[in-house]
Amino acid sequence: MSARVDLALLGVRGSLPVRRSAGAGPSDDGHLVINGINAAIPRNPLSPYVLEGDQILLDGSSEDLGLDVSAIDRPAFYDLRTDSGTEYEKIAKLHGRDVLASTVMQTCIRYDPAQRCRFCTIEESLRAGATVAVKKPAELAEVAEAAVRLDGVKQMVMTTGTSAAGDRGAKHLARCVRAVKAVVPQLPIQVQCEPPGDLATLTELREAGAESIGIHIESLDDAVRAQWMPGKATVSIGEYRAAWAEAVRVFGRNQVSTYLLIGLGEDPDELVDGARELIEMGVYPFVVPFRPHPGSLAVDVDFAQAPRADVVEAVTRRVAKELTAAGMAGSDQKAGCAACGACSVLQNVGG
């Protein structure tokens, strides 16, 4: 486990065919399969770990880490374009070996520096020309069909920046889900959004065809939220709790998840206690180490550092133990981040 945690924090050097350099969620990563489990590993030119073929070596040593490693091949659908000339890769990306992911709206009302989540780079990939601002439902469906047919994609994740509308972007997600399901009805989909103003919108997302949902809070500590995500912190924890409860009612137990980031300053014991409360609600706490990456305020302004490996491992093991006791596993989710598992090490310890 320790080597896997080190890789999650320190990253790796080497050629990684499937990678991304900015966007929503953890980024600047390359995608591998390690011991049979998806792994999104930071690409770090200063890492002491080097990927060579199917081995990860400590720099300057011929001794590998004893991990079963394989890189994800570049998918065939990346070579295609829509009729309007947009590259499929700018509409959706491969995550792990079989997950299609798209940020359906690449702008966020909270991206102003005074409100912006300090770990987020959602608009940087747009500024770099690596994506398009708003994904059209029909084009998403076109890409999804190709990804399933050509590359064996087995699930899809759709997230969104927060819009100024009362639904905070959820209704566009619903339109996108309907379009994809009309073309590949067998493809499980997770949607991700802030709590919509009207909780009935959660039912609309379910009826559109989404099988699971992520409503990501990142921290359950109000002081941490105010420091790290001042705009998002204006949505109270109480509103999140109401949304999680309704989402569990609509989507079912263990089909609702939320990110909890390790390393933002939240007390580890309180983080685990909060995760336990979420599990009791039927919500999967996807605990993920904070990974500072270029383009974020955390790196460019705060010079923030990744958390200590021993803290990440201890928190992850404790949360995994709670999940196991409750009979909840990420692999039991029909689609989404917890089902993929790449950005966390929970699945490595049975979570």
TrEMBL record:
The keyword tRNA processing does not apply. Residues 94-322 form the Radical SAM core domain. Gene3D superfamilies: Aldolase class I (3.20.20.70). Its cofactor is [4Fe-4S] cluster. InterPro entries: Aldolase_TIM, Elp3/MiaA/NifB-like_rSAM, F420, rSAM, rSAM_MSMEG0568, rSAM_sf. It comes from the Bacteria. Keywords: 4Fe-4S, Iron, Iron-sulfur, Metal-binding, S-adenosyl-L-methionine. NCBIfam families: rSAM_MSMEG_0568, variant_rSAM. PANTHER family: FO SYNTHASE (COFH), LIPOYL SYNTHASE 2. This is MSMEG_0568 family radical SAM protein. It comes from Williamsia marianensis. The lineage of its organism: Bacteria, Bacillati, Actinomycetota, Actinomycetes, Mycobacteriales.
